[in-house]
Amino acid sequence: MKNPIGRGIDANLNRVSEGLRVVEDICRFVLANQVLQQKTKTMRHSLNSLVSVDDYLSNRNARMDVGRKSSGDLENSRSGAADLVKANSRRVQEGLRSLEEFFKLEDVTMSGKLKSLRYQAYDLEKAALVSLSGRTLKRGLYLILTDPPHGYETLAQLAVDIGLPAVQLRYKGDDDRIHYSLACRMREITAGSDTLFIVNDRPDIAMLCDADGVHMGQTDLPVDRVRRLVGDRMLLGLSTHNISQVQAAKAEPVDYIGFGPLFTTTSKAVPDPVVGPEKLADAVRVSPHPVVAIGGLTLNRIRELDIAPLSNAAVIRAVAHADDPQAAIQTIHHAILEMSP
Hints:
Blueprint: H1 4-30, H2 34-50, H3 81-103, H4 108-132, E1 140-145, H5 152-162, E2 166-169, H6 176-190, E3 196-200, H7 203-208, E4 213-216, H8 223-230, E5 235-240, H9 243-249, E6 256-259, H10 280-286, E7 291-293, H11 299-304, E8 312-315, H12 317-320, H13 325-338
Parallel strand pairs: 1-2, 1-8, 2-3, 3-4, 4-5, 5-6, 6-7, 7-8
Helix pairs in contact: 1-2, 1-3, 2-4, 3-4, 5-6, 5-13
Protein backbone atom coordinates (compact mmCIF):
# COMPACT_ATOMS: atom_id res chain seq x y z
CA MET A 1 0.00 0.00 0.00
CA LYS A 2 1.28 3.42 -0.94
CA ASN A 3 2.19 5.84 1.85
CA PRO A 4 -0.26 8.81 1.69
CA ILE A 5 2.32 11.14 3.27
CA GLY A 6 4.83 9.96 0.67
CA ARG A 7 2.29 10.75 -2.06
CA GLY A 8 1.96 14.28 -0.72
CA ILE A 9 5.72 14.72 -0.62
CA ASP A 10 6.11 13.39 -4.18
CA ALA A 11 3.37 15.67 -5.53
CA ASN A 12 4.80 18.78 -3.88
CA LEU A 13 8.36 18.03 -4.97
CA ASN A 14 7.06 18.01 -8.55
CA ARG A 15 5.01 21.15 -7.96
CA VAL A 16 7.97 23.10 -6.58
CA SER A 17 10.39 21.90 -9.25
CA GLU A 18 7.98 22.73 -12.08
CA GLY A 19 7.26 26.19 -10.67
CA LEU A 20 10.96 26.96 -10.31
CA ARG A 21 11.59 25.85 -13.89
CA VAL A 22 8.98 28.30 -15.22
CA VAL A 23 10.42 31.17 -13.17
CA GLU A 24 13.94 30.23 -14.27
CA ASP A 25 12.89 30.29 -17.93
CA ILE A 26 11.36 33.74 -17.50
CA CYS A 27 14.56 35.01 -15.89
CA ARG A 28 16.57 33.43 -18.70
CA PHE A 29 14.54 34.14 -21.84
CA VAL A 30 12.30 37.11 -20.98
CA LEU A 31 14.54 39.07 -18.61
CA ALA A 32 17.91 37.78 -19.86
CA ASN A 33 18.94 38.21 -16.23
CA GLN A 34 21.86 35.87 -15.58
CA VAL A 35 21.97 36.55 -11.83
CA LEU A 36 18.30 35.68 -11.27
CA GLN A 37 18.47 32.73 -13.64
CA GLN A 38 21.38 31.31 -11.68
CA LYS A 39 19.63 31.93 -8.34
CA THR A 40 16.57 30.03 -9.54
CA LYS A 41 18.66 27.18 -10.88
CA THR A 42 20.55 26.99 -7.59
CA MET A 43 17.24 26.74 -5.72
CA ARG A 44 16.16 23.80 -7.89
CA HIS A 45 19.44 22.05 -7.28
CA SER A 46 19.24 22.79 -3.54
CA LEU A 47 15.82 21.16 -3.36
CA ASN A 48 17.05 18.12 -5.28
CA SER A 49 20.03 17.77 -2.97
CA LEU A 50 17.80 18.02 0.13
CA VAL A 51 15.10 15.59 -0.97
CA SER A 52 15.52 13.00 -3.71
CA VAL A 53 12.48 12.58 -5.95
CA ASP A 54 13.49 8.95 -6.49
CA ASP A 55 12.95 8.22 -2.79
CA TYR A 56 9.25 9.05 -3.11
CA LEU A 57 8.52 8.05 -6.70
CA SER A 58 7.09 4.68 -5.65
CA ASN A 59 4.30 6.51 -3.78
CA ARG A 60 3.05 8.27 -6.92
CA ASN A 61 -0.50 7.45 -8.01
CA ALA A 62 -1.62 10.21 -10.36
CA ARG A 63 -4.50 8.14 -11.78
CA MET A 64 -6.20 7.92 -8.37
CA ASP A 65 -5.54 11.56 -7.37
CA VAL A 66 -8.93 13.02 -6.41
CA GLY A 67 -7.68 16.54 -7.18
CA ARG A 68 -6.41 15.67 -10.64
CA LYS A 69 -9.28 17.28 -12.56
CA SER A 70 -10.09 20.14 -10.21
CA SER A 71 -9.06 23.67 -11.19
CA GLY A 72 -9.84 27.23 -10.15
CA ASP A 73 -11.42 29.94 -12.28
CA LEU A 74 -8.06 31.66 -12.79
CA GLU A 75 -6.08 28.48 -13.51
CA ASN A 76 -5.82 29.16 -17.25
CA SER A 77 -5.73 32.96 -17.10
CA ARG A 78 -2.38 34.76 -17.40
CA SER A 79 -2.00 38.37 -18.56
CA GLY A 80 1.77 38.49 -19.00
CA ALA A 81 5.17 37.49 -17.71
CA ALA A 82 4.52 39.08 -14.31
CA ASP A 83 1.43 36.91 -13.88
CA LEU A 84 3.48 33.85 -14.76
CA VAL A 85 6.05 34.76 -12.12
CA LYS A 86 3.36 35.37 -9.49
CA ALA A 87 1.44 32.16 -10.21
CA ASN A 88 4.49 29.93 -10.32
CA SER A 89 6.11 31.60 -7.32
CA ARG A 90 2.93 30.89 -5.33
CA ARG A 91 3.12 27.29 -6.51
CA VAL A 92 6.70 27.08 -5.28
CA GLN A 93 6.00 28.77 -1.94
CA GLU A 94 2.85 26.77 -1.19
CA GLY A 95 4.52 23.53 -2.26
CA LEU A 96 7.47 24.20 0.01
CA ARG A 97 5.09 24.97 2.88
CA SER A 98 3.34 21.62 2.36
CA LEU A 99 6.69 19.83 2.25
CA GLU A 100 7.74 21.65 5.39
CA GLU A 101 4.63 20.41 7.22
CA PHE A 102 4.84 16.84 5.88
CA PHE A 103 8.45 16.54 6.96
CA LYS A 104 7.53 17.55 10.50
CA LEU A 105 6.14 13.99 10.62
CA GLU A 106 9.28 12.41 9.19
CA ASP A 107 12.35 14.62 9.67
CA VAL A 108 12.16 17.85 11.69
CA THR A 109 15.65 18.93 10.61
CA MET A 110 14.64 18.61 6.96
CA SER A 111 11.50 20.62 7.69
CA GLY A 112 13.65 23.50 8.91
CA LYS A 113 15.80 23.41 5.77
CA LEU A 114 12.71 23.52 3.57
CA LYS A 115 11.45 26.52 5.55
CA SER A 116 14.70 28.34 4.72
CA LEU A 117 14.21 27.49 1.05
CA ARG A 118 10.66 28.87 1.20
CA TYR A 119 11.92 32.24 2.39
CA GLN A 120 14.41 32.25 -0.48
CA ALA A 121 11.43 31.75 -2.79
CA TYR A 122 9.77 34.90 -1.41
CA ASP A 123 12.92 36.90 -2.16
CA LEU A 124 13.19 35.38 -5.63
CA GLU A 125 9.62 36.34 -6.53
CA LYS A 126 10.20 39.92 -5.43
CA ALA A 127 13.47 40.18 -7.37
CA ALA A 128 11.91 38.76 -10.55
CA LEU A 129 8.91 41.09 -10.37
CA VAL A 130 11.14 44.10 -9.73
CA SER A 131 13.25 43.11 -12.72
CA LEU A 132 10.15 42.80 -14.90
CA SER A 133 9.12 46.30 -13.84
CA GLY A 134 12.27 47.63 -15.51
CA ARG A 135 14.26 48.43 -12.36
CA THR A 136 17.29 46.34 -13.23
CA LEU A 137 20.79 47.10 -14.45
CA LYS A 138 21.39 45.59 -17.87
CA ARG A 139 24.84 44.79 -19.29
CA GLY A 140 27.03 47.38 -20.93
CA LEU A 141 28.69 50.72 -20.29
CA TYR A 142 27.72 52.47 -17.06
CA LEU A 143 28.50 56.12 -17.82
CA ILE A 144 29.41 58.41 -14.90
CA LEU A 145 29.28 62.16 -15.47
CA THR A 146 31.19 64.50 -13.21
CA ASP A 147 31.77 67.98 -14.63
CA PRO A 148 32.30 66.71 -18.22
CA PRO A 149 33.84 69.23 -20.67
CA HIS A 150 31.26 68.30 -23.31
CA GLY A 151 28.37 69.05 -20.93
CA TYR A 152 26.09 66.89 -18.81
CA GLU A 153 23.07 67.15 -21.08
CA THR A 154 25.02 66.40 -24.26
CA LEU A 155 26.53 63.20 -22.86
CA ALA A 156 23.28 62.12 -21.21
CA GLN A 157 21.53 62.44 -24.58
CA LEU A 158 24.27 60.38 -26.25
CA ALA A 159 23.83 57.71 -23.56
CA VAL A 160 20.12 57.54 -24.34
CA ASP A 161 20.61 57.56 -28.13
CA ILE A 162 23.14 54.71 -27.97
CA GLY A 163 21.08 52.75 -25.43
CA LEU A 164 23.42 52.56 -22.46
CA PRO A 165 22.07 50.70 -19.43
CA ALA A 166 22.72 53.60 -17.06
CA VAL A 167 24.06 57.13 -16.70
CA GLN A 168 25.03 58.47 -13.28
CA LEU A 169 25.11 62.08 -12.16
CA ARG A 170 28.15 62.53 -9.93
CA TYR A 171 27.95 66.21 -9.03
CA LYS A 172 30.61 67.33 -6.54
CA GLY A 173 29.66 70.99 -6.19
CA ASP A 174 28.29 72.58 -3.01
CA ASP A 175 25.15 74.20 -4.43
CA ASP A 176 22.17 71.90 -3.85
CA ARG A 177 19.90 73.95 -6.10
CA ILE A 178 22.28 73.55 -9.03
CA HIS A 179 22.56 69.86 -8.18
CA TYR A 180 18.78 69.43 -8.11
CA SER A 181 18.24 71.43 -11.31
CA LEU A 182 20.87 69.40 -13.14
CA ALA A 183 19.34 66.15 -11.91
CA CYS A 184 15.91 67.22 -13.14
CA ARG A 185 17.29 68.06 -16.60
CA MET A 186 19.02 64.69 -16.84
CA ARG A 187 15.82 63.01 -15.69
CA GLU A 188 13.94 64.71 -18.53
CA ILE A 189 16.50 63.45 -21.04
CA THR A 190 16.43 59.85 -19.82
CA ALA A 191 12.69 59.59 -19.06
CA GLY A 192 10.94 56.93 -21.12
CA SER A 193 14.21 55.50 -22.43
CA ASP A 194 16.07 52.25 -21.74
CA THR A 195 18.82 54.21 -19.97
CA LEU A 196 18.47 54.31 -16.20
CA PHE A 197 19.24 57.60 -14.48
CA ILE A 198 21.24 57.19 -11.26
CA VAL A 199 22.10 59.93 -8.75
CA ASN A 200 25.35 59.56 -6.81
CA ASP A 201 25.36 59.91 -3.00
CA ARG A 202 22.08 61.83 -2.65
CA PRO A 203 18.88 59.80 -2.11
CA ASP A 204 16.98 63.02 -1.38
CA ILE A 205 17.76 64.51 -4.78
CA ALA A 206 17.16 61.13 -6.44
CA MET A 207 13.66 61.05 -4.95
CA LEU A 208 12.88 64.69 -5.73
CA CYS A 209 13.73 64.30 -9.42
CA ASP A 210 12.19 60.80 -9.64
CA ALA A 211 15.47 59.13 -10.64
CA ASP A 212 15.63 55.42 -11.38
CA GLY A 213 18.24 54.83 -8.71
CA VAL A 214 20.82 56.10 -6.28
CA HIS A 215 24.42 55.00 -5.75
CA MET A 216 26.03 55.09 -2.31
CA GLY A 217 29.61 54.86 -1.09
CA GLN A 218 31.10 53.09 1.90
CA THR A 219 31.14 56.29 3.98
CA ASP A 220 27.71 57.54 2.89
CA LEU A 221 24.39 56.83 4.60
CA PRO A 222 23.85 53.13 5.47
CA VAL A 223 22.24 51.40 2.50
CA ASP A 224 19.63 49.63 4.63
CA ARG A 225 18.37 53.05 5.75
CA VAL A 226 18.52 54.38 2.21
CA ARG A 227 16.43 51.42 1.04
CA ARG A 228 13.81 52.24 3.66
CA LEU A 229 13.82 55.83 2.42
CA VAL A 230 13.61 55.22 -1.34
CA GLY A 231 11.54 52.01 -1.22
CA ASP A 232 11.69 49.05 -3.56
CA ARG A 233 10.96 51.10 -6.67
CA MET A 234 14.42 52.61 -6.89
CA LEU A 235 17.65 50.89 -7.94
CA LEU A 236 20.27 50.96 -5.17
CA GLY A 237 24.00 50.58 -5.81
CA LEU A 238 26.93 50.38 -3.41
CA SER A 239 30.64 50.99 -3.96
CA THR A 240 33.02 48.27 -2.73
CA HIS A 241 36.80 48.39 -2.66
CA ASN A 242 37.86 44.94 -1.45
CA ILE A 243 36.51 41.41 -1.20
CA SER A 244 35.52 41.87 2.46
CA GLN A 245 33.20 44.70 1.44
CA VAL A 246 31.83 42.56 -1.41
CA GLN A 247 31.07 39.83 1.14
CA ALA A 248 29.36 42.33 3.44
CA ALA A 249 27.25 43.66 0.56
CA LYS A 250 25.65 40.23 0.14
CA ALA A 251 23.55 40.95 3.22
CA GLU A 252 22.59 44.46 2.12
CA PRO A 253 19.40 45.40 0.19
CA VAL A 254 21.32 46.51 -2.92
CA ASP A 255 20.71 45.76 -6.59
CA TYR A 256 24.30 46.00 -7.81
CA ILE A 257 27.77 46.85 -6.53
CA GLY A 258 30.65 48.85 -7.93
CA PHE A 259 34.08 47.27 -7.49
CA GLY A 260 37.38 49.09 -7.74
CA PRO A 261 39.44 51.00 -8.43
CA LEU A 262 40.94 48.39 -10.72
CA PHE A 263 43.60 50.84 -11.90
CA THR A 264 45.00 54.17 -10.74
CA THR A 265 42.36 56.87 -11.10
CA THR A 266 42.33 60.66 -10.90
CA SER A 267 38.55 61.02 -10.50
CA LYS A 268 38.82 61.27 -6.70
CA ALA A 269 40.95 63.66 -4.66
CA VAL A 270 41.70 60.83 -2.22
CA PRO A 271 41.24 57.60 -4.18
CA ASP A 272 40.78 54.22 -2.55
CA PRO A 273 43.66 51.73 -2.82
CA VAL A 274 43.95 50.09 -6.24
CA VAL A 275 42.68 46.50 -6.08
CA GLY A 276 43.97 45.45 -9.49
CA PRO A 277 42.05 43.70 -12.29
CA GLU A 278 42.90 40.24 -10.97
CA LYS A 279 40.52 40.78 -8.03
CA LEU A 280 37.55 41.42 -10.32
CA ALA A 281 36.99 37.71 -10.95
CA ASP A 282 36.86 37.14 -7.18
CA ALA A 283 34.31 39.92 -6.75
CA VAL A 284 32.11 38.51 -9.52
CA ARG A 285 32.34 35.02 -8.02
CA VAL A 286 31.48 36.19 -4.50
CA SER A 287 28.73 38.71 -5.27
CA PRO A 288 25.15 37.60 -5.97
CA HIS A 289 24.60 41.05 -7.49
CA PRO A 290 25.76 42.45 -10.84
CA VAL A 291 29.26 43.89 -10.49
CA VAL A 292 30.22 47.20 -12.11
CA ALA A 293 33.98 47.38 -12.68
CA ILE A 294 35.35 50.87 -12.08
CA GLY A 295 38.57 52.83 -11.71
CA GLY A 296 40.97 54.04 -14.39
CA LEU A 297 39.26 52.06 -17.14
CA THR A 298 40.00 52.66 -20.82
CA LEU A 299 38.94 50.70 -23.89
CA ASN A 300 42.14 48.63 -23.90
CA ARG A 301 41.95 47.95 -20.18
CA ILE A 302 38.32 46.88 -20.46
CA ARG A 303 39.24 44.38 -23.16
CA GLU A 304 41.84 42.95 -20.80
CA LEU A 305 39.08 42.29 -18.25
CA ASP A 306 37.72 39.42 -20.34
CA ILE A 307 39.33 37.19 -17.70
CA ALA A 308 36.17 37.74 -15.65
CA PRO A 309 32.49 37.48 -16.66
CA LEU A 310 31.98 41.24 -16.94
CA SER A 311 28.47 42.62 -16.52
CA ASN A 312 29.21 46.34 -16.54
CA ALA A 313 32.13 48.74 -16.62
CA ALA A 314 31.95 52.35 -15.47
CA VAL A 315 34.02 55.08 -17.04
CA ILE A 316 34.39 58.81 -16.46
CA ARG A 317 37.42 60.32 -18.21
CA ALA A 318 37.51 57.78 -21.07
CA VAL A 319 34.32 59.39 -22.38
CA ALA A 320 34.24 62.85 -20.78
CA HIS A 321 37.68 63.81 -22.13
CA ALA A 322 37.45 62.00 -25.47
CA ASP A 323 37.74 64.09 -28.64
CA ASP A 324 34.72 62.20 -29.99
CA PRO A 325 32.58 61.15 -26.99
CA GLN A 326 29.95 59.50 -29.17
CA ALA A 327 32.51 57.20 -30.77
CA ALA A 328 34.06 56.50 -27.36
CA ILE A 329 30.69 55.55 -25.84
CA GLN A 330 29.77 53.28 -28.75
CA THR A 331 33.14 51.53 -28.87
CA ILE A 332 33.38 50.87 -25.13
CA HIS A 333 29.73 49.82 -24.82
CA HIS A 334 30.00 47.33 -27.68
CA ALA A 335 33.30 45.99 -26.34
CA ILE A 336 31.57 45.11 -23.06
CA LEU A 337 28.60 43.50 -24.80
CA GLU A 338 30.92 41.36 -26.93
CA MET A 339 32.53 39.83 -23.83
CA SER A 340 31.29 36.58 -22.38
CA PRO A 341 28.59 37.33 -19.76
